[in-house]
Design goal:
Radius of gyration: 20 Å
Number of strands: 0
Number of helices: 4
Order of helices and strands: HHHH
Shape: elongated
Oligomer: single chain
Mean pLDDT: 82
Number of domains: 1
Strand content: under 5%
Amino acid sequence: MRRSATTPIMAMPTRAELADQYLAQLPYAPYPVQEEALLAWFTAEQGVLVCAPTGTGKTLIAEAALFEALHTQQTAYYTTPLISSAPSAGASRPRMSAW
């Protein structure tokens, strides 16, 4: 979209405003560990590392980072670990050699 002389330039939201917007659009209240991690994300200068057991809501923090990137016209990358589950080490060797 081209900007014309009459198209206003929107101010970039602050991180505090983004945090408020993100939390307001959630369909449920975050768990306490999620709140702590979200606060860390929206106040960190370079990012956060979230380590928590499966099922505790780490994805919500990643979604907050993507929410911020989308609203500030930045690029974000989201990755997840690749975990192979095999009944034993012997069972995984054929798979590893095939790679």
